[in-house]
Amino acid sequence: MTSMEKDICSLVFNQLRKNKRIDTAFINEIIYIYLSHKHMEGFIKENVDETNLQACSNYKKGEGAAIAAFDPKNKKIVYSEEGIKELNYYLQRSYSPAFKSDDMFLLLSLYVTQIILHELEHVSQFKQTTEKEDTLESKLLSSTKCSEIIYIDYPFFQRNYQKDLSERLAQIRSFTTITNIIAEEDLHNNFNVFFNNKLINEKLRGFDFNQYIYFSTGPTLDYMDELIKNGYASEDSLYLYKKDKEKALLELYGQYSTSERVDFGLPILKQEYDQLNESKPKQLVRV
After folding, report:
1. How confident is the model over 135-176, as pLDDT tens digits?
2. 170 and 125 in contact (C-beta within 8 Å)?
């Protein structure tokens, strides 16, 4: 575990021992830990606002309840207590056979932590793109307008959510933190199954093999195609873009590892996809 993951782990398990309540103080502490470890103190307001998220959240009802969102205009994280209650109800209804009653609060705490970390990843992305950092992530996010498109054309954002790199990275990194925490703790294997399956599903999301049998162009290049088609970008303005997808595969295959291409939604071979898919843990078991 990284030092940040250790601090988040301590926070979650201290909360479990203390009052078994997810409140503003708990979420503020996650924000403080993340910002301090990422050396981003003062970049956003460190006190979260409780609000109604119906209009601004990327989450739908159910497992992805309207819980939190990053508001870049006001540089703050907002969250909904009602959304947390809704998520708790959903988890209780859907997963109680696989988790003891004492473990259900921990499941909720870890899931809410993942959602807050997801929004904090958007904060990091916003910083990288506004400061034009010289990284693969910053260049891809800047050229694909991932931080802006939700405000420019919300229907476009909704249609292409599965291909959006900013959402992809936020999910992968936040779930990775949770799975790293679980790996260090003596928990029932169902926690590992639950969160690792979600992580792997996020990594596999958006890759399809409809156009080519032996490789997938990947959601990021597919998203770039949609930007060009809708007049939001030109081929020359998109970092790593290639109209010839087989040429793109050959170039990017030698340039980036399987892990990098998967995480960034770049072209992968069918066998790389299959290997990742086969690494999923077994199904949840009744307790």
Report:
1. 999 999 999 987 788 888 989 998 999 999 999 999 999 999
2. yes
Count up the domains in the chain and report the number.
2
pLDDT given for residue 67 in this prediction: 86
For residue range 118-128, list pLDDT tens digits in order: 999 999 999 99
pLDDT tier, 216 (very low <50, low <70, confident <90, very high otherwise): very high
Exposed, middle or buried, 94 (CB in 10 Å: 0-12/13-18/19+)?
A: exposed
Q: Convert the pLDDT of each residue in 264-280 to its tens digit.
A: 999 999 999 999 999 99
CA distance 213 to 215: 6
Phi and psi angles of residue 139, each rounded to the nearest 5 degrees, phi first: -65, -40
| Domain match, 38 and 128 both | yes
**Looking at the DSSP assignment, which residues form a beta bridge with residue 216?**
268
Cα–Cα distance measured from residue 218 to residue 163, given in angstroms and rounded to the nearest whole number = 8
Q: Is 172 in the same domain as 240?
A: no
Q: For the packed helices 81-95 and 101-130, what is the interaxial angle rounded to 10 degrees?
A: 130
- The answer on 154 and 80 residing in a single domain is yes
Residue 210 lies in a domain: no
Listed residues 204, 226, 245: the one ending a domain: 204
Same domain, 195 and 258: no
Domain around 114: 3-204
In this structure, the answer to whether residues 107 and 232 fall within a common structural domain is: no
